[in-house]
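Annex B. Sample input.
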Amino acid sequence: MPPGVLTVCLPENIGIPGGRNAGADALHEAGDPADWLYFLDNDASFPYPDVLARLVAEAERHPEAA
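Annex B, continued. Sample output.
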C-alpha cells in the first residue's frame, strides 16, 4: 500500500458491515487523520491505477454531489 494508507486485516470474516465498522473504528483510533474513507472488498479491483485520485478530485470539484 502507498504511504499513509491504513489497512485493517481481521482474523475472521465478520461480514461486510462488521468489516466496514472495524475499518472506521481503526481510523478513529488512529486519530481520524483522513479526509476520505474508502473500503475495498477482496473481490473488487480498480479499472485504472488512478481511479481513487480521480474520484476524490471530482468530489472536491462538486461538493454538492451526493
